[in-house]
Amino acid sequence: MKGGTVQINWHDTKPVLTLDFHPISCLLATGGADFDIKLWLINSGKVQKKIPSASYQSSLSYHGSAVNALRFSPSGEQLASGADGGELIIWKLHATETGQSWKVFKSLLFHRKDVLDLQWSTDGAFLISGSVDNSCIIWDVNKGSVHQILDGHFHYVQGVAWDPLSKYVASLSSDRTCRIYVNKPQTKTKGVEKLNYICQHTIVKAEQQSTDDAKSVKNHLFHDETLPSFFRRLAWSPDGSFLLVPAGSYKMSASTETVNTSYVFSRKDLSRPSLQLPSASKPVVAVRFCPLAFNLRASNPAGFFKLPYRIVFAVATLNSLYIYDTESIPPIAILAGLHYAVITDIAWSYDAGYLALSSQDGYCTLVEFEKDELGLPISFSEPKIMNVENKSPIVHKPDDMVIEAARVDDSITADNTKAECTERLEGKQASPSLMNAPISNKPAKRRITPMAIDP
Q1: Where does the source fall among the domains of life (predicted)?
Q2: Which of 16, 54, 177, 339 places its Cα 20 to 30 Å from the Cα of 186?
């Protein structure tokens, strides 16, 4: 595994706010505060034993404001990009005499304010977007029209995720709630079912017994609007067996420190977290799953994910990145000290060969994995929906872990009381001053040595 910050002019020194890999090639798309989308070809660094590099290919210029989110469609033939001011554009790949080019296919107009996150449906026919206007919109891509508006949030929607099995969508907002919507299809006149998502769970607080055992106290499960990031990018596992939600905040009691965490929701019960993955000193702002599954390496009775394969995923805090798999409890790798400003997005290449992350400091980090370093890939052609083991609702702290673990109480429930929110999020830019994440040098984990960036 080799990785580091690639010191090139990604977006004219402006913040890089989002990135995504093409699903069938090593083409990387990045979006920035320079209003531009840039396409890069990632080059391996294995031969020279260096970090991978990026070669500029072309720019997609259309947006008139900062590009906050972009995602390729599952087929790779389209690219969706969301920007400030409510702009949402679908780009389509066209064959030309000299190769291929991307052209504007549709402009989806309805959001009144900045689009912060978006996600395609598995079949590529629909798109969900989240916005500063407090709403999620499900779009019919072929028609270029609004299919459904989900307007239950009371503050900015900073993350959206589409269940790969198409039963659920999820959203995460700075109103301190995560909403789970379930598809209750409506039958049209000719017997055709129409997508119709209704809110099934609103996850807000955890109920906890106080020290005197006389009263129970409810604590919020998520950070409020003062979280210094405009993104809370949540994600479903590729097989749909669980949902991973960032921006978690948990207190053991009123007198204890707040623990930054990401929550794992089992598909069997999406009303409350099954597990939590504690992070370092900074809040979690994004999670992303590797698109491939891998063979199990060994039997691990202490593991909490009872799956017939291993799933690998990345968890980004404001200033560090943790790579986990479902067969072990501690992270399998930790990256820290890579950027001077907050991390904004994560992306995996289609073959699990590369992992990329973007930052508001204007740079991106690329990590390259050796062949089969993450394991022997297997197919998701016939996914078995397994669930997080329910024998314990906590992730225990192994002796060699340096990040603090906290208990998620058995009595966590979905609380439908809406959180009170302030009118404005205080500042879009996060503080450039970062604290170093505590890192263990034990053999159980490997640390990527970052490359210095000249100030």
Answers
A1: Eukaryota
A2: 177
Residue with the two structure tokens 């397994």: 386
Other residues' Cβ atoms within 10 Å of the Cβ of residue 394: 16
Q: DSSP secondary structure string, 328-370?
A: -SS-SEEEES--SS-EEEEEE-TTSSEEEEEETTS-EEEEEPP
Round the average pLDDT of the chain to a whole number and report it: 83
Task: Write down the residue that tokens 């204890």 correspond to.
Answer: 256
Please state the rounded mean pLDDT for residues 112-138.
Answer: 98
> Could you read off the pLDDT of 32-43 as tens digits, one per residue?
999 999 999 999
Residue tagged 């409810």 (tokens): 218
Cβ contacts of residue 403 below 8 Å, gap of 6+?
278, 279, 280, 397, 438
Q: Are 17 and 345 in contact (CB under 8 A)?
A: yes
Tell me, what amino acid is at 52? Answer: P
Is residue 379 packed enough to be buried (19+ CB in 10 Å), middle (13-18) or exposed (0-12)? exposed
Identify the pLDDT of residue 36: 98
Judge whether 147 and 166 are in contact, CB under 8 Å.
no
**Beta-strand relationship, 343-348 and 333-336:** unpaired
Cα distance between residue 330 and residue 338, in whole Å: 21
Dihedrals phi, psi of 44, to nearest 5 degrees: -65, 145
Burial class (CB in 10 A: 0-12, 13-18, 19+), 432: exposed
Give 266-286 pLDDT, tens digit per residue.
Answer: 999 999 999 999 767 899 999
Confidence check: pLDDT of 201 > 90: yes
Name the pTM for this structure: 0.83
Confirm if 41 and 57 have CB atoms less than 8 A apart.
Answer: yes
pLDDT tens sequence across 429-452? 332 222 233 333 333 334 433 333
Sketch out the chain's domains with CATH numbers.
2-448 (2.130.10.10)
**pLDDT-derived band at 386, boundaries 50, 70, 90:** very low
Sheet holding 343-348, edge to edge: 2-6, 364-368, 354-359, 343-348
